[in-house]
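Hey, can you fold this one?
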Amino acid sequence: MTWCKLPGMYIYFFVLAALCYVTSAFLPSERRTWISVGTLAGWLLHGGALWSDMIGNGTLRVGFAVMLSSTLWISVAAYWLENRNFTLDGLRILVLPCAAVAVVLPAIFPGDMMSLEGKSALFPWHIAIATLAYSTLTIAAFHAILMALQESKLHARLTAQKTSLFALAIDRLPALLTMEKLLFRLIGFGFFLLTLTVLSGVFFSEELFGEAFRFTHKNVFTMLSWVLFGVLLTGRKWRGWRGRTALSFTLSGFTTLLLAYVGSRFVFEVLLHRSFV
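Sure. Predicted structure:
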């Protein structure tokens, strides 16, 4: 696959967005205004190019790269909004470089165009809710990684690590209890959206294939992820789960969800060179 498969204008926007993300990721934390402006500029360029590329005349572009790019686009928005209330430099250093990579992927792996003709008018909403669910749980996974690093740093005795940019960013994070509250808010909202995705997916599976549930790689891993997040929220409510148990469930659920959609599409599109529409 080559860069010429997408119009040149989109490629320029994707590259400019990536440059904004990378620059904002590694600016000193004291430059909060420039970081905020750079992130917002990258996000607007990213979103504009992504929307123009994905939405056609009665068609929708699908693929692992588009899905990953969309997920990171919403994750950047979540970081930007959260950072206005809390100092989340650690999240910036994790999210923005990942977004910089994800933003250019559709230019390399453009995926396929799906015709919306004959499909329910609610089908694009199913795609939108699924993307929002994946994005919310992605930012929750970033939170979990930061919390794991934050907790390990509390027990570390190596003072030499405190001078690195990332170590200083970890030091500026809110208290672990505050991070934990943010994490479970994200997981709760993401689980709600994932539940809507599963239910709407059953409806569209019935409509398109005549079966309420098909035992495909994507469906099985999505349900497994849904179960993991459901067990985590239940354990949190009734058993007070927190700390490493919560982090393990969060990262396991996220990894399973990543395999469900992005993983299966990556195998089909990149490794097998087959359409997965």
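DSSP finds nine helices and two strands in the chain. Let me know if you want another pass with a different chain boundary.
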